[in-house]
Amino acid sequence: MRKVYMDNAATTPLLPEVREAMMPYLGDIFGNPSSLHDWGDGAREAIGAAREQVAALIGASADEIIFTGSGTESNNFAVKGLALARQNKGKHAVISAIEHFSVLHSARTLEKWGFEVSEVPVDKHGVVDPDDVARQLRKDTILVSIMHANGEAGTIEPIQKIARITRERKIPFHTDAVATVGTIPVNVAELGVDALSLAGNQFYGPKGVGALWTKKGVRIMPLLDGGIQEDGRRAGTENVPAIAGLGKAAELAKTHMTDRMKRLAPLRDHLLKELPKRVERVVVTGHPQHRLPGHASFCVEFIEGESMLMLLNSKGIAVSSGSACTSRALKASHVLIAMGLSHEIAQGSILFTLGIDNTKEDVDYVLEMMPPIVDRLRQMSPLYAKFSKTVKGGK
Amino acid sequence: MPVYSEKVMDHFTNPRNVGEIENPDGVGEVGNPVCGDMMTFYIKVKDNRLEDVKFKTFGCGAAIAVSSMVSEMAKGKTLEEAMKITPRSVADELEGLPKQKFHCSNLGAQALNKAIEDYLSKKKGEAKK
Hints:
The structure holds two protein chains of two kinds.
Chain A: E1 4-5, H1 16-22, H2 38-58, E2 65-68, H3 71-85, E3 92-96, H4 101-112, E4 116-120, H5 130-136, E5 141-145, H6 159-168, E6 173-176, H7 188-191, E7 195-199, E8 210-214, H8 240-278, E9 282-285, E10 295-300, H9 305-314, E11 317-318, H10 334-338, H11 343-346, E12 349-353, H12 360-380, H13 382-390
Parallel strand pairs in A: 1-11, 3-4, 3-5, 5-6, 6-7
Antiparallel strand pairs in A: 2-8, 7-8, 9-10, 10-12
Helix pairs in contact in A: 1-8, 2-8, 3-4, 5-6, 8-12, 9-12
Chain B: H1 6-13, E1 26-31, E2 38-46, E3 49-58, H2 61-74, H3 79-83, H4 87-93, H5 99-104, H6 108-128
Antiparallel strand pairs in B: 1-2, 2-3
């Protein structure tokens, strides 16, 4: 059976070159980077090289990169650490309604700590209006955190425009760029932000490693106390193999980004255009143009995402869904709801995130498999039966 | 895949008794799309026995498997026997359901019960006439 992995938003596969770059640090070069002897040197050099590679990918300088254990840690660190470092200036933060849980729930924690958090809405395409951000800013606002692109909707946010507003007001601006770094060009100076999160497993690097970039001079309170790793900003012995892998993945992303985007965008557009032609009552979610290159997301009416996902899996196709049934919390995706979709429509969420291994044949295979799967589930659906009776006037 | 038993996967991939019954003796509908799952059961009753049971379900793999299992368990049973089918007995027959699925998706027994109640109240109504 054909195997088609289209869940790259969950994680990308590890490139063989990245694995190669990691291997020495799973073998002979096992030293602790903090050690002063020869064993420590090799490990320390690996981290230094990776720091340069990651910095080069986002147009930063190496000493501004803090390695973390994941995109989630980077977001926790940014939201809590930036707020705590400024709490004597004010206790108000602004985020968007579609942030990843690692930002959203960090903001909830800030509230428990006595901060106030305002949420900026999004439009039906999942776009944040910079004017809405401006309206939320107060004298005591000490942090704005708006994501660069949403992994579920695929929508790319107007970060530059928001940054112009926050800079004028001298409010630190963090962006969760986990979905964009390594996938589309990201340059911290061009974006105009003060802090930015990224994660290795979003661009063919290893899991369990991420980074937070903070602009020189931006104060941040460490979350982990301990040794003085990462310039005292993130204690704990470094995950050397993963960091080396992240560095290599960053280097490869920088080299191949244009080619990857050129290959992915037409595949995405083919899927976005063709699926609604082959299956009736399908809604494209996210922005039609300003979206991630490999990202095609839909809501299929009258059926539920998990059952679609399972039947696609039985055909060798890996996807994800934002339906309530697929979430552990059994709640529909807050992203889809924030975009104004009803719970009923959101239940039919299905998300194809293409990666560099996908081909036109893969997309055609998905397009071939989807109609019978949808049809099969609709034949079982009481909602579809009602629709057929009332709207179609048929049986 | 969600951690589903082989039995759940079997009933999900080959659901039994999907469909509607024309002129059913009873109909039971539970759930709503907000919570995720919706099930409609249709029954045909003859000599106090469930001669036919069919269902339509909007929901996850567990919801579909539960509906299918309930329909299989109920078919041929007397009304009293069928009323004794519970979410627990359905889950047991399915060789277990993931914890988070137990409450939201396990609505089959309830829908069947509603269909039987619907039949009984209709019968009562007719008897009064």
